[in-house]
Amino acid sequence: RKFKRKLKKVEESNCNKCNICHRCISTHLAWDEYRKQRNLTNIITKANKRENLVNDLKSKSARNDLKGIWKSIKLATNSSSTSNTQPKVDVSNVNAENLNKHFCEIGPKLNAQVPIFNNISYNDFLPSRKANCNIDSFNEITSDAIKSYVLSLPSNKAITDQLPLKVLKCILPIILPSLTYIVNLSLTTGQFPEKCKVALVSPIFKGGD
User: Fold this and answer.
1) Residue 68 near residue 60 (C-beta atoms within 8 A)
2) C-alpha span between 182 and 50 (Å, rounded)
3) What is the dihedral of CA 32, 33, 34, 39, to 10 degrees?
4) How far apart are the C-alpha atoms of 177 and 146, rounded to whole Å?
5) Which of 107, 114, 81, 74 is nearest to 198 (CA)?
6) Which of 26, 44, 61, 158 sits most deeply, having the most CB atoms within 10 A of its CB?
7) Per-residue pLDDT tens over the stretch 117-143
8) Residue 20: pLDDT band by 50, 70, 90 thresholds?
9) Per 3-state DSSP, what percentage of the chain is helix, strand, and coil (rounded to 5)?
10) Distance CA 127, CA 157 (A)
């Protein structure tokens, strides 16, 4: 009788640690069910996030949206643009002039090391042409194709170093015949203008070290 009375008192109390009373047993059962539902919810959430990320990357890849692709990757990896997980590097002893000189001269230095053979043509390195493949002739680019391509470029992107795209789109109706002639002349002669091979590279500081 004393044991029954004691057990009854324990059941009526707000005990959550004895593992004997009805309240403790109900709490453990509820917690087990909660964990099952929580784990199932986490699995479904992760699967949906993964599927949404893949679909987002596919759509942005189809639009050639590189900026959007990197933004999606950052969001998926929970990486902040202000966070810096890389080890800090001491740049106090770095000479900016020598660094700039190195990158300006590395191209000509490597080019000077490439051997030149007068009796070898670039055609020797190309694969043999198939019988059904004919590239001796092609259709010239039309003015409409060039106009469509230029207008499809985003106005905040620079294709040349001195001429903004907004200006190019404004004067496109005037220079379109000349631009079409230059493009077709380059394709027919196999030569690319030397001035178009030069670019001004401006490093952009994006935070961190």
Assistant:
1) yes
2) 47
3) 90
4) 10
5) 107
6) 158
7) 777 776 777 777 665 555 566 678 899
8) low
9) 60, 0, 40
10) 36
Question: Roughly how many angstroms between the first and final C-alpha of the chain, as a whole number?
Answer: 76
> How many CB atoms within 10 Å of residue 57?
16
CA angle 203, 198, 102 (to 5 degrees): 55
Q: How many residues does the chain have?
A: 209
Q: Which residue has 């929970």 as its token pair? A: 78
Contact 27, 43 (CB under 8 A): no
Q: Which residue has the tokens 């590189």?
A: 66
DSSP per-residue letters across 106-157: HHHHHHHHS---TT--GGGGSPPPPTT---S--PPPPHHHHHHHHHHS-TTS
User: In angstroms, rounded to a whole number, what is the distance separating the alpha carbons of residues 27 and 21?
Assistant: 10
